[in-house]
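New to this. Help decode both lines:
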Amino acid sequence: MRRLLLVLYLVLCVAFGFVLAPAVDYSIAHLKYHYHGGWEGMEVRHSRSIPCEEAETWAKVTQRIWGDILKGNSPLEGYSFTFSVVEYGELGPFVDGDFTTKRFWWRSETAETVSVALPWSNGESLEEVSIVKTIAHELAHLRRYLEQGSQEGCYLTSTSSSQWNLEDYLDNPCERAAREFAARYMEEHPEFLEELLEDSG
């Protein structure tokens, strides 16, 4: 009986290992923030794809930049935000979206909640500067979207990569505004980068 249970246990371990492995890769690092006049709680989960230290760095950067963006911005107050770090270029399901749509955030149709995917660099560690620029860039898109109440003009969401024109995307007004915001944020907050570099030793 014990042998039978042991064999059954091993079979289940192998079976669930194959089933759950892809899901683990897609839930790389999950950061939850709820903004109701202030931050309430943060959860960081990570898989073998992204080291814990990397996930914590993303969490710290995201909280700082997003907190700065929300200051004095009453239209965004009351939203709940879920941030997830994903491997840039991965194909597969994420929250209620799909990587092939070129979209990195989704707003719930039934509640004031927003899901945000922050692209990570294909399994390679990012320099602190790149982390700040990448997150500032994506959050600038999100802020513009929430303020306008429409994603029109902010993202090209064709599911076919052959129909997705990089030049048009880079020339997009919303994309340009996001790039400018990221560059300006870096210039205006040099102390933030210094803190990150100190923390990373």
Notes: The chain has one domain: 27-199. Residues 27-199 form one domain.
